[in-house]
Amino acid sequence: MQHQLVIDDLHARVDGQEILKGLSLTIRPGEIHAMMGPNGSGKSTLANTLMGHPSYEITSGTVTFSGQDLAELEANERAKLGLFLAFQYPTAIPGVTMANFLRLAVSSVRDDGTSESATTPLIPMRDFRRELKEKMKKLGIDESFARRYLNDGFSGGEKKRAEILQLAMLEPKIAILDETDSGLDIDAVRIVGDSVNQLIGPDLGVLVITHYPRLLNHIKPDHVHIILNGRVVESGGWELAEYLEAEGYDAIREKHQSANAEDLASNGQQ
């Protein structure tokens, strides 16, 4: 299927330590997947590996998007192909307004490479302003937000809304939301969730990476996956998130430790 993201038996390491240990997942257009796991389970490693962070190395397995091998593409090429990552901790850039940053980012992603210019040709200001105004109105963001310096002095909620505005403007095929609810209060989580819901449609696949189920009360996933020790150990629907909310990660750990022990014992008897 066009634009599907296929992760097959992915192994990846950072600083010489293997973090992902055989993770498999397929995300299709229009699907919302939630990847849940405790701290250190490999959630953010997955996000950074998918987007091509230079510190993260794929050691085996494959990741393909729209039929292309992501391991062969630089981070900017992955973005042009239609991948988007909303960062857990967005960086502040004093002196660069949201509007100027977004115009350059949108122009870069939409550049077809036919221009002979040494720099990325910018989309016409009139067209950009019209589109930005429409997207901000849709998300309920005041127009003055675009004149502020990117993430400079932003509250936690404002940083996350800035990420969602980037998502709206860039119009990717697959959006990866890495711990988007991190550091937010209940009201801010609701606002972010409502904003993401405004953008969800049949052409956008979403991977919500989170530690807590609370964001999923606002962004309802079609599929829920639990990651432990670099592997997806369980997959299901909304009921899996409800189970996790009620029982916690310890119950999942105990369940799979017991299963592993039984497998080892069985193999030892053969």
What does this structure look like?
By secondary structure, the chain is α/β, with parallel strands linked by helices. It has one domain: Rossmann fold (3-Layer(aba) Sandwich). The protein is built from 8 helices and 12 strands. The strands form 3 sheets. It has a 6-stranded mixed beta sheet with strand order 6-9-10-3-11-12, sandwiched between helices. Helix 6 links the parallel strand 9 and strand 10. Helix 3 (98-110) runs parallel beside helix 5 (156-170) and helix 5 (156-170) packs parallel to helix 6 (186-199). The longest helix has 21 residues, at 249-269. The radius of gyration is 20 Å and the shape is globular.
What are the defining features of this structure?
alpha/beta, disordered C terminus, Rossmann fold, 8 helices, 4-stranded antiparallel β-sheet, 6-stranded mixed β-sheet, 270 residues, globular
Furnish the topology, listing elements before pairings.
Blueprint: E1 5-14, E2 17-27, E3 32-36, H1 43-51, E4 56-65, E5 68-69, H2 75-81, E6 83-86, E7 93-97, H3 98-110, H4 125-139, E8 149-150, H5 156-170, E9 174-178, H6 186-199, E10 205-210, E11 223-228, E12 231-236, H7 238-247, H8 249-269
Parallel strand pairs: 3-10, 3-11, 6-9, 9-10
Antiparallel strand pairs: 1-2, 1-4, 4-5, 7-8, 11-12
Helix pairs in contact: 3-5, 5-6
